[in-house]
Amino acid sequence: ALDPGDTFTQSQLATAIRALPADGLHESAQALVRALEGAGDQREDYWKNRVLPFWEKIWPKSNDQASSANTESLARLCIAAGDEFPSAIAVIGNWLRVIQYSDYVISRLQESGPSARFPEHALRLLFTILGDQSSWLSRKLRQCLDSIGQAAPNLRQDHRFMRVDELARKFGI
After folding, report:
1. pLDDT score of 85
2. Alpha helices in the chain (DSSP H)
3. Rounded distance between C-alpha atoms, residue 125 and residue 61, angstroms
4. Residue 49 has what DSSP assignment?
5. Has residue 38 got a pLDDT over 70?
6. Minimal CA–CA distance to 131: which of 150, 105, 108?
7. Residue 41 DSSP one-character state
8. CA quadruple 93, 40, 109, 158: dihedral positive or negative?
9. In angstroms, what CA-CA distances link 25 with 34, 66, 98?
10. How far is residue 156's CA from residue 34's CA, in Å, rounded to a whole number?
11. What b/e readout covers 38-60, taking b as 16+ CB neighbours within 10 angstroms?
12. How confident is the model at residue 127 (pLDDT cuts 50, 70, 90)?
């Protein structure tokens, strides 16, 4: 579906994806992440020319199937979009949910740099995936918050920033 050919129409692909059980949708989300991460230096183009059209034309339109199991993959998909991170958050953001074990996503977010380059969107991602987190949090969360606060000092007064900062402090981060 990411490399459309003459075998299936978009409508057929969309029908097949919509018919998948939750596990199948989860596998599809993971496949999208692998494909985008595997695009290397071409990630932004791959996002715009392959993943975004797939998301807009084939992925189920109702987020009734949104689950925390898919959220980690979808958050990673946003991060893997590179400079298209804001676009990815705008398109995929409504599918994101709380992630029980958010360490890997937070680490990827900090390592790849969106917190400093796109602080508003990084904050939206963190606020959404952390919720009222009651499990262990990554030490990299503080680094993400520091990057966001340095890139956009006004966000330090945003209720989302204050909530995530409160969580970090709660866990001694």
Report:
1. 97
2. 10-18, 22-37, 43-46, 52-57, 68-80, 85-92, 103-112, 114-117, 119-130, 140-151, 159-170
3. 20
4. I
5. yes
6. 105
7. G
8. negative
9. 14, 9, 17
10. 34
11. ebeeebbebbeebbbebbeebbb
12. very high
Chain segment 56-109, per-residue pLDDT in tens: 989 987 766 666 568 899 999 999 999 999 999 999 998 899 988 899 999 999
- pLDDT tens, position by position, 21-30: 888 888 999 9
Amino acid at 116: A
Q: What is the DSSP letter of 81?
A: T
Q: Which residue in the block uniquely carries the two structure tokens 């919509």?
A: 18
Backbone φ, ψ for residue 33 (5° rounding): -65, -50
CA distance 33 to 79: 9
